[in-house]
Structure formats: structure tokens, C-alpha cells
Amino acid sequence: SQQGEEDPQALSIQEGENATMNCSYKTSINNLQWYRQNSGRGLVHLILIRSNEREKHSGRLRVTLDTSKKSSSLLITASRAADTASYFCATDAEGYGNKLVFGAGTILRVKS
Amino acid sequence: GAGVSQSPSNKVTEKGKDVELRCDPISGHTALYWYRQRLGQGLEFLIYFQGNSAPDKSGLPSDRFSAERTGESVSTLTIQRTQQEDSAVYLCASSLVPSYDYEQYFGPGTRLTVT
Asked: How far apart are CA B38 and CA A91, in angstroms?
């Protein structure tokens, strides 16, 4: 079974609105990463948050991490059509060595 | 500098044939990863090369899959006797250090179609 699972599976919003995606995981982690995948640029790293951090910002992105609930959220503010993509969370996992485990992703569609 | 490159970008092969996929990592990156992504799904880990250490092959789905890497350079993923269920996008990624603490840089992928 997957370490990271995103929800919702798909999200459709209007340009300018905020988009929130969630990721839940099963085992304790050292860090959690978010990646974006679209047809134009492939899979790209967005942000890394460590287990001792609760919130991190990068431009219009805000990531939170709640290790007690084993969950993370990715907020994209003032969304743009170019934000249309699939978003994946990835974590290390106990017994998994130096590898990352990716969730199934959230498909975000931003309508202009 | 140049990113991770993969070739071919698309490959169509007949069931039963062998295929070889190539990945050129970012120069100086000691870790190299192969993933498989089926349509509409997440990334499935296949194999991981970590510098000069033995590769982690724990994700390879069957003995038809193998991969090699020479030093810290090019890697090839070979699929023998391809099956239709092997159809997927195969993604390669590299990172500076073999650790989950570092971001992975992905190539554009090879889309494999087995007919």
C-alpha cells in the first residue's frame, strides 16, 4: 500500500481562486516533498518540508505539515491557468532507505 | 546546466521484444532513480543507484527488468520479453546526494507502448 495518498483525486477551480490539496501518510517521516507534473515541464520539485517544520512558503505556495495527524497540505493561492497539473507528495518511509515514496497525485484544473 | 535527459522519448514495441531505455543524469549527481508511471497513476519505484554502492533493486517487478549504471554516468533500463502490462512512462531522476533529504530532478520520460 502507498505511503502517501493525496486527496482530492481531482480538483477544478476558477483562475484566481485558491487550491488546497492534502496528503496523508502512514509511517513516521524525516521530510515530505511536493512535486508538480504537467505535460510542458514534466515532473518538477516544488518544496520540501522537514518533520520539525510546521509551515513553509515559496511564492504562492504554502505547505503545512502535521506529524501528529500524519498529513500535509499544499495551498496554491491566486491560482493561474498555468498551475493546471498533477501534484504529488513524496515521503521517505521507515525501512525504505533513502528512497522516496510517491502518492497517486491530485489532478488540478484551473479554468480561465 | 543540462538537466536529466532520457531516450528515446517514445518507444513502440511488439510483445516479446526486448527494449533498452537510456538516462543521462545531471553531471555530478551520485544518485539515480528509475520509476514507472502507468496512465493516471503515481510513480512506482523500480531501482536506485547510489554512487558506488550496490543498487537497490527492490522495486523491479520481475526478472525481466534490469538496469545498469557505469560510475556516476549514464544508466540503461532493460526490459526483456516485453508484455502489454509494461506499457507506461518510464521516468529517470537524479539527485546530488543519495538521500531522501534532497530533491530529485526528473527527466522527460520514455513512453513505452507494447502492442
From this structure: 20
The answer to whether the Cα torsion of A41, B12, B45, B72 is positive or negative is negative
How do residues B30-58 score in pLDDT, each as one tens digit?
999 999 999 888 899 999 998 888 899 99
Mutate which of B4, B43, B53 to disrupt the A interface (most A C-beta within 10 Å)? B43
Q: Given an 8 Å threshold on Cβ–Cβ distance, is A99 in contact with B99?
A: no
